[in-house]
Protein: DMT family transporter
Organism: Pontibacterium sinense
Amino acid sequence: MGNKVLDRFAVILLLGLCVIWGLQQVAIKFALEGISPMMQAGLRSIGATILLCLWMRWRGVKIFERDGTAWWGLLASLLFSGEFLLLYWALEYTTTSRGVVFLYTSPFIVALGVHFFVPGERLRLLQVIGLCCAFGGIVVAFGDNGGAGDTLVGDMMALLAAVFWGATTVVIKASPQRMLPAERVLLYQLAGSAVALPLLSLAFGEAGVTSLTMPVIASMLFQIVMVAFVSYLAWFWLIHRYQASKISSFGFFSPLFGVFFGFLIMDEAITPIFIVALVLVAAGIYLVNKPQAVKQTLVDKSSLPES
């Protein structure tokens, strides 16, 4: 369990998940036409929390249990809320292509965090090279906006969202939460953000839901059902059956698909310089997640995908 070599079905499913995560930023952009950023992120979490609770009841996984992880779960949910607050906000000020590239610098935050906070996990030479590639990609991306206007505020928000995402993963890896069923780890994050984000939306005086057109409704359903529920459960199914390290190495496809869909659907300009930045970040993700020579036999339940 958790140590099978990737077969054709697993590879196809992984690529499908990367497509879903690459489309997420496009869906957020569409929904911003009728729902303000924080309220949109909150509604996403509310819907996904309901679906996850129904799933857990059906599977017999305990929703509430005193296991000493509540405070760690609260911390993870606050970081998760901050990540999506920043990501949804960022996409009001930057393009989907730029947003996805900066967001997917998160694996490098994780690599640095576990080096200092998780015993036995130290940076390897390939990971250091990957970090250098990613840093170079960020510098190149900041230096080129492809004629998209002033994207600095949105770019910085997306980068900070990546920091929050990475910090969430490090907290889970370094705390007792790593021993929980994957559904409960996810529930802490979704339920916490389902409460926090709508309240923040009201506190900031957002307009909230202003227009429920078909594109807006379809975008929200995609985010709730396909991204925050189906794709996460599929991810957990994969990491319980296949080598987690080999699965993680597919992460570099998500920003590639994200940039492609930004170009294809949103008609965003992609310059040669930005392609260089994308390649550097994608290469860095691959190197940071590249499996070690020693075969892994344990499943890391804290390895949550980005949504």
The chain has one domain: 8-289. Confidence is low (pLDDT under 50) at residues 293-299.
